[in-house]
Every structure is written in C-alpha cells, then in structure tokens.
C-alpha cells in the first residue's frame, strides 16, 4: 500500500500525517479511494456538528467560543471550514482560519479549510473523506463549517449528526435560511449577538417559519429522506452571546439532548444508512462524471456526433443516449 | 408524438404553447427529451445574454431598461430568471418577475422564472431546454438572469453568447465576483447606479482584478475551455444609470461589438461546440444520476452492501465500484 506509512502515523494520532492525508484526498480521488479503503474500519467514533450562517452572523467568534466550551470538557476537536463558493482562488475562509488561530497551538484542536476546486460533488466527497481522517485521528467532535449560500450545504451536511444554523437579530437572515433549503435540515437555531435588539423577534420569526415549513415539507418525494430526521425532532432555538459566552451551557445541553435523541430513537442507525447511501452516491457521481468527461473530450466518434448536432441532424438528448450506449450501460437491464 | 399539437403551436409562435412546454421540460426530463428532439432543428436563431449580479445591484431595474432599449430596436425578447438557491419553495425571483410586470402585457416580451427543484445539473439542463423553446418561439434575444451566488452560474451561463456582470459602487461586490468564479466568464462589466460616489474607483478595481486574473487563469486545465472565449476578448467596462437610461447606448454598442467579435473570429463555432458538449454532459449527468439513484434506492443487493459498510467490512468507495460493475460499465473498456 502506497500510503501505509502515513496511515500508520495517522492511527498513532500524528498531526502532520492527518494534515497530509487530507491534502491527498482533497486533490486526488484515486488516493482518496486507497486511503479510505485502509482506514474505514477505524472510523465511527466522532460526533459531527454542521454549522452554517450568512456572512456577518459572527460565525468565527461563535465557533471559537464553542471550541472553548468543548475543550473544557476535555474533548479533542477537528474543524473543517468548507467554502463552496470559491472555485478559483482556493483561499477558502482563510480569514476565519486566521481569526481562529488562537487555538492553533493547542494539541486538541485541528483546523483545516477546504475550497471548491471543481464540481460540488467533489467538494462534498472530499469533505466526507476529511471527516473520516479526523475521526481516525481521534477527534471526539468534528465541526464542519460552511458559508450560508445554498444547496451545497445540504450535500455537505448530510454527514452531520447535529446541524446548527446561526442567525442574528435583524431583517433578512430568516428569509435567507429558508431560501437556501437549510431550514429543513436544521436541528438547532442559534440567535447570535443576543445583546442586539430584536433577538426575541427573531425567535418568533423562526417559530413562524417552522410552522410554515410543516405545510410544504412533504411536497417533494425526492427530499423525503432529508426530512426523515426532522420529522420527530422539533428544532431547538437558543439566544447566545459569543463574546461573553452567555447561554453556551444551554446550547451544549441542546446538542447533548439531540445526540441522545438520535441514539434513543434508533434514528442514528437510519441516519448512518442514509449517510452511506449519499456518500456512495457522491463517489459514484464523481466517478461516472469523470468517465463521461474523458469520453466526451477524447473519443473520435464524439466529434462526429457533435458535428451532426451542429448541423441539427442530431439533438443533444439523442447524442447523450448514443454515449450511454457507448459506455455499455444497457437500456432496460433488469437489475 | 405526444406533444406534437403543442409543438406545432409553438412553431406558430403561440405564447401559451411556449409557456406550457417550458413547464413540461422543467418538470419531466422524458418530456424534455421528446420536445427537444422535435424542435431542435428550428433552433439557433436567438442571441443569448447572461446577466448576473449580487442582490442590491439593481438587476430588475437594469434589465427593465435593457428590455426597453431592445424593444425600441424591434426585438422580440425572452427572459428566463434562474434561481439556483431556492430548492424548496420554488418561488424563484418572484419579486423580480413582479417588478418587471410592466412589460408582461407586451407581445414581444416573455418572462419566465425557474427554480432549483433538485440537483444543479437539472436546473442548468432545464434552462438550456427553455432557451431552445423561446428560440423556436421566435425570440431574437434571450436574457438569462441569475442571482450571483457561485458555481451554478458558470454552468447556467455556458449557453450565453455574452455574459454581463452587474456591480455597484461600494465595497465587496468585486471580491464577490471573483470568489464566485464569474469573473472568468464575464464579457462586459456594468457598473450600475453610476450616480453614486465611487463608480470610477470600482472601474479601477475591476481593471486591477482583470490583470490579477491573467496570472492564474491557466492554473487549472479543467477550466481551460471556460477561458477560451476570454483569451482573445478583453472584457469591456461601462458605467450606467438604469433609472435615467444613461449610457445604455454604449452598453448596446458593446454587446453588438462582442457579437461581431464572436462571429468574425470564428469563435462562435468553437463556442457552439463547447456548448453542445456541456449540454450533453448535463443531460448525461442527469440520466446517469437518475439511473444510479434508482439502483441505490430500489435494488436488494444494495441493502446488503450498505449493511456491510455499516459493519465496516466494506467501505463506500468499494461499494461504488461494485455498483459500477452492476451498471455494466466495464472497467478498462477501450473506447
């Protein structure tokens, strides 16, 4: 095995091995495949917390205070900052990472940022793999943080046990949360900056939205699995002050309550099943897309098809069907 | 043919047929396949304009004034408002649509909004198909508008001949544009609200960013096709006032200049090739994902695999490989 030395060091909890393996799985799906294949049996111990919030909600300070609270309980913590909006520069959430640097020197905190270097499926897949590496590295708690921009979090948060959405008093965020489809996967709403006016109004807004949501949540069959978790869990709402640390004890109790809920109801096992399905789906999408792209950009017959589409004697759907035939997938194969 | 009546009416430029066909292709990929198969030979006449801008850049007013200018030139216009951030409610850009309603009664303007009802590939695919329907409906110009949120526009704008990015004087938007990867596909930068202070500073910022971009634009091989267009075209920059209509004549000249550039250099033919490839890719992704999802959520063997992954005797990558084998795609098939 090519990476066995690094993997052994990871199992021995060496920080540099964890960092290097994450870089590997991020950049190279073939390396990822080998690494995950070797370490998968050691995973499954970490609790995964998804945190999102629009810019300006004070995410960095909130997460710093949260880390402080968990450190006091003796936890080892991994933080993955995911930025799905940054396909080119790769400098994902660098500012946040710098702001959280105060914890960098501690042995019990590992911070890593990941950017979108290609398609969304790739980022969700790489994040999944990074979570596994930090799990084997011995993190009790893994925080996956993303900026609040849309559908991409829904994919990224599929592996989170508890999803926290950060809001601040004032107009707009509540609407944004519902627009992005995050609302449906939120377990705990945190109103940060509770000292600002309007925190209670924000709580009322969330309650109203939760009621509204009940009306359309089963509209889409496709999304029914996303809702499976929320169906029996009524999202908690808490106001906090990340600077003074006020109410973080309540928040920690809520996270604990949600963890117990997942375990006691047996939902955690359904949840793990769904996570495996969604993860396999991400890997498959990545592999199939790669296969099709290779074909599309290298095969000689494809050029002929494209010429025909340009002459309008073929349309793109028919061309897609011809390619599916080339890939060898039988049309009505009975699985 | 199931939809031949509707398609005949579309060819006869009936508005209701266009609206109904767009609903069809949006909701049902099988219907889309049949419809596009029948109408593809009539497409290729419309000029496609992609417009994006962050909230607050005055997109609706800008587009309204742009429509007014094109109407004066006797053009028939289609507008597709795409909202990739709204997976649940489906109420994409409803506000914008209402604000643009002043043009609704005109025979020469067709406005339609589309929301993200599933994965991104689906939305880009549906938008492509809606463009074709409006093309056959006889639109000379089709405006595809999206909110400025990220990678999704890059997919949606692959069919646009000219891409316009809207900015306003003030801090932040320029950075946002570069973050989202939009910069690389922009042909014309429009500084809206030129009457506000700082418009010239914004122009300077864009010039600076364009220079910066030159340095990393070939970093990624994957993106080289996106850059193919910009390589020979230096993006134009114009300041406008959408309320008074100031400088829209300059903007229209720029769009015209860009159209001529695409035609005279022959880039329009390369561009069409790339568009066909990317469109076929979208359709293939959609079809393959559907195939794999069906398999993942219905096949009995899959449940066994998932149990094995839960017991950690199998990992998700190995499970993905087993599914690829089930799909009948041979591993090292020589195409």
Summarize the helices and strands and which ones pair or pack.
The structure is a homodimer of 335-residue chains.
Chain A: H1 4-11, H2 15-27, H3 29-39, E1 47-53, H4 59-72, E2 77-83, H5 94-99, E3 109-115, H6 120-136, E4 141-147, H7 151-156, E5 162-167, H8 173-179, E6 188-191, H9 199-216, H10 224-232, E7 236-239, H11 248-264, H12 267-298, H13 300-310, H14 316-327
Parallel strand pairs in A: 1-4, 1-5, 2-3, 2-4, 5-6, 6-7
Helix pairs in contact in A: 1-2, 2-3, 2-6, 3-6, 6-12
Distance between the termini of chain A: 34 Å
Multimerization state: homodimer
Named CATH architecture of the domain at 36-265 in chain A: 3-Layer(aba) Sandwich
Helical/strand content category of chain A: alpha/beta
Fraction in beta strands of chain A? 5-15%
Helix content of chain A: 40-55%
Largest sheet of chain A: 7 strands, parallel
Largest interface: A-B, 77 and 75 residues
Secondary-structure element string of chain A: HHHEHEHEHEHEHEHHEHHHH
- Give the strand order, joined by hyphens, for the main sheet of chain A: 3-2-4-1-5-6-7
The CATH C-level class name of the domain at 36-265 in chain A:
Alpha Beta
Report the C-alpha radius of gyration of chain A, rounded.
22 Å
CATH H level, superfamily name of the domain at 36-265 in chain A = P-loop containing nucleotide triphosphate hydrolases
Number of helices, counting only DSSP H or I runs of 4 residues or more of chain A: 14
The pLDDT mean of chain A sits at 80
Low-confidence stretches of chain A: 87-95, 216-230, 330-335
CATH-defined fold name of the domain at 36-265 in chain A: Rossmann fold
- Which overall shape of chain A is indicated by the principal axes computed on the Cα atoms? globular
DSSP, total strands of chain A: 7
